[in-house]
Amino acid sequence: MESVITDFNENGFSILHGILASETLEAVKHECKTLVDALASQRQTEGKLANMYPDADFETRLIRLYENYPDENPTIFRPELHREGFFGVFAHSILLELAGVILGPEIRLYPNYSVRPKLPENKRTEVLWHQDAGYTSKEADVLRMMNVWAPLVPVNIENGCMEFIPGSHKWGVVPHEKDEYYLRIHDDYIKPVEADAVSIEILPGDVVIFSNLLFHRGLPNRAQHVRWSLDFRYQDATQPTLRTTQGHLLRSQRTPEAVVKDAKAWAQLEFQ
Ligand SMILES: O=C(O)CCC(=O)C(=O)O
Ligand SMILES: [Fe+2]
């Protein structure tokens, strides 16, 4: 625990190996498969799919479903995540324990939680160098956050793992520019440090926690399968979100009755 916090504070990130139990991961994957099933049915109804590929595996089915329509594949699921199987990861005891040490006793799930199916060779899934705070506002450097990123398949340089610039969380929010699909840190700030990037090659069950100020990107997927991952953020709930959405309270001494109490309650809520 101590070295995790030291790494987080010093480098802006820390990798925790094997903390998600296989049941927790399976529950998440089960929900993702349900989302893919729903998309298959929808596309068939729209007349865009002759074969639903019911037997294709988790890592490739989404590619099959969209092979004739490369610009229509989903790149992110958000409102769809209010399903029971996702709660075990969002409210994971080790993660909330760590968030408690880093952020204090009032913890919200920040209104930015996603599952990303990163399809191969798809520009719309190549997340450029950015700080998450850069997507919120210049004032977002005051937000006390702990970001979490967890792969659902083994991730590496080939299939689009994350890359981090260690220590960059100490530099405040730097200017971002709008690229085609994503914001991108201005060249003056990223070029001098890009060679310091470390690739976060990890396995399902591992998670990496990182600062919302850390310079990071998600590499393009050049493999033949979908790079599935989950990312979410905890915030000190005594602060404003600086967004129009408020997230959901997951731990609280002040108002314990307001905490999302279990998977069923989670599934009844909405993305907000
Ligand atoms: O998954 C990716 O490729 C990028 C994710 C990201 O930027 C994040 O989790 O903050
Ligand atoms: Fe990010």
UniProtKB/TrEMBL annotation:
Family under the similarity heading: Belongs to the iron/ascorbate-dependent oxidoreductase family.
GO molecular function, one term: metal ion binding
Cofactor requirement: Fe cation
Source domain of life: Eukaryota
Protein name in the entry: 1-deoxypentalenic acid 11-beta-hydroxylase
UniProt cross-references to PROSITE patterns, sorted A to Z: FE2OG_OXY
Pfam families noted in UniProt: PhyH (PF05721)
Location of the Fe2OG dioxygenase domain: 101-236
SUPFAM superfamilies, alphabetized: Clavaminate synthase-like
Keyword list, A-Z: Iron, Metal-binding, Oxidoreductase
